[in-house]
């Protein structure tokens, strides 16, 4: 927890559709959100709703891309909390070979 950032407030204001509490009925959750809605996702573009991909809505998309080195380090720490027991060097090899 941070004294500067209220993580729960950020999560509530910018929900992630893949989050466990939304997985059961994300459409209903989004429909009930106040406007304007800000939603973040890790979904690839081709998995977004067709209306959004085809530009048939007024929705805006902001695409954020990270430096692959930063992504690897961040993913390594995430994997350590989820049972990965290897070294950073081993993880980098797996990351670079897309395993």
TrEMBL record:
InterPro entries: P-loop_NTPase (IPR027417), Sulfotransferase_dom (IPR000863). Pfam families: Sulfotransfer_1. Belongs to the sulfotransferase 1 family. Keywords: Transferase. Residues 11-96 form the Sulfotransferase domain. One of its GO terms (molecular function) is sulfotransferase activity. This is Sulfotransferase domain-containing protein.
